[in-house]
């Protein structure tokens, strides 16, 4: 053992304090630093985020290239329905799987391995851990997915421009659409973090995220149209995706209203996770 | 210092820990002993604020664990199994824990050397053997150089060299004035490592005493082999001391410690060929004490023809 540890004697009123001076208070900033080390020291983080970017950019290029090559064979209706911006960004639908799964894993991975007990022993307040995980993951996802979205858009439009089909970032609403993809995916990630913390289980968390985003809208379609139209626009995925819509269609929320509703779902899930995190045994 | 008062934990219908009160003092290694399922891990999780007591309280260094602003500096913990993400290297695991409270990278390197994980520090913890995992757990407990250590089954899975290493380490830490609490379900291990014992069974306190008292209470015997057995036997004779002998040169002594017997023999110039405290009797005493408290027990069949 190190010789700096003084041989404090037992007995006195105060507990022995061998070793160096310490100001080691747990702060939100320090927990953030800790979570950053955790996030970047797992191979799965890089693998999953690369998959998300590749899906976003690759599928966008694939769809755009396909349209550019087949434009002459497309029906007039297909041509009329063609939206250059969304075609190049369509990869978000796949990217959300990767982002959602990673969001769940950021929390559930600690429960699955038992790491969570070491984490909560180090940060007994627990909530700083949730805020750090959510904030950090949101920042990383937003940065990468916004960059990916921009790349997908520029690459897709470059492929389409040979046919003079391409849109430009200067077109009305296009910047919102491109940014919207990054924002939507960020909130999908946050939803993943929250549901991972609520359910404390990887399989359950993933099922919950994609049940909410992919299955619930399909179920809503089973409702009579008079109801379904009203319900659908308030569902998390539909509301969230309205931020990417270039033109507002009937029975959809305005872009930022929809996005705010989507954020509301994530906020409620995070709040629920926070309450249970404090209350439950680790 | 760890103080538990009327600590109780219920999980639904099942009561894991009942009205447990004990104090773990600094300066000695305290063994937390009980059969599997006795409530040791539950109690340790409550000490660390991971599980909330149903009633009662437990304080570490004068405060509930969760109220410490710099917990890693107060209490170093090693929890059951491995509280480690399998995909992360030992180094990054420790670095992430250290970061929560501003422990410098230098200290992380230091504890890696203390526990002897230098060569595998950058390998994924998922590939670690049980013994390496235990060493990593001990490294994380030592990170903040804390005054109190709580270790759940630290010798589990260690090889003999590792067991000796941890025994020495824990005794050294206690000798520096720290509070050391370690759990085990093996009495023989505790007899060698701990000075004080807290024994529980089925979540209830069964004993809180020094190992020496426990041994005395257990009627632990000492086996002595010498050519001058008869002379030694006469010298040892005293109230409360029983000496039996099955072979002429071997004595079984109860009521005296091996130290006392050795000294008596030395004073009389008697050469001893063997002087062995019988650990088996210690294990038996523990089993006797916790017999009714063992949760899972193989049924013992009555031997045929034996009168009840």
UniProtKB/TrEMBL annotation, chain B:
SMART domains: AAA (SM00382). Keywords: ATP-binding, Nucleotide-binding, Transport. GO terms for molecular function: ATP binding. It holds the Pfam family ABC_tran. It comes from the Bacteria. Residues 2-227 form the ABC transporter domain. SUPFAM superfamilies: P-loop containing nucleoside triphosphate hydrolases (SSF52540). Belongs to the ABC transporter superfamily. This is ATP-binding cassette domain-containing protein. The lineage of its organism: Bacteria, Bacillati, Actinomycetota, Actinomycetes, Kitasatosporales.
